Amino acid sequence: MTDETVEAPPYRRPALRDVAEAAGVSRGAVSKVIRNAYGISPAMRKRVEDAIEELGYRPRTAARVMRGQSFTIGFETPQVGNGINTQVIDGAAEQLAGSAYQLVIVPGLGRISAQEIIESLVDRQVDGIIAIASEVPSDWIERIARNTPVVVLGRHDKSSAYDTIRNDDEAGTDLVMDHLLGLGHTRIAHLTIEPPTDQAPHVFRRDQYLKRMAEAGLEPMLHYTSVTERAAQESTDALLASKNPPTAIFAGHDTLAIGVLRAVAAAGLDPSELSVVGYDDIELASHPLVSLTTVDQHGTDAGRNAIRLLLERIGGRTQPKHECFTPQLRIRSSSAQIRG
To answer: Which residue segment(s) compose the domain that 86 sits in?
Structure first.
């Protein structure tokens, strides 16, 4: 018995003309079906769609770009592990479902800057960009937005060149402070990150915290940390070891709050001894074993609205829109009346 090697035929990707021949229509008709253009009969559409499925035809992105549209939307995010970013991405994907557009998500992961990511998305000629871009200067984003539609999330910018979607961070902080002060806490620490720009949300949460502490005649306990759970846990350990430890910690976002809860558990404290409040209302926050009191800033809705605004920009709108969500406090068992 002899082995015979049969050489496979060379691969050839189906072209638009192959679909036209299989469907018995012109190439122009195939193009109209792909673009969902007006004037195609149901019978012709079905013939073309059947041929596309049988041949496994995929429109070439490069050809679309040459015609001025790639049907891709770029999404820049510092990290994918942050729960609020996941909510925003989920909302954006839901809003795009059933459309001709695809979402291209590029996380920085602590190694690539937002500026580098946005530049790479522009180089790939995406039709629009949604960006967290917390550390990028506003004037730089404006230069990008002159040629590529941009929606920026979280920041308090009022640019005429790009749209923004944010949360009312002052109101959200007021909700937290009203809650903790109402529970009898006076030694309230704010654990946050160094804000990269003066328009970042953490600036407004920090400043409102300082304002409320001053109004209450209380000494502020502002403590900066990095973005990880481990860093927040170590910072909380340091706060607890201080001469006058806090009885409540307001964390700048939920990832930090989870790190705080780790430290609380390790120290054997209960919420009446150290209450914890976060900001974001990530999915983990409502888990019965976590039960984190936190501020819901409607991340999924923000993602949906970001896509809506971006598609309006792609469609020709030039007037800027700056939308703001009203936050809600989700009270759970991580906060409690102070003991004694």
So the answer is: 72-167+299-325
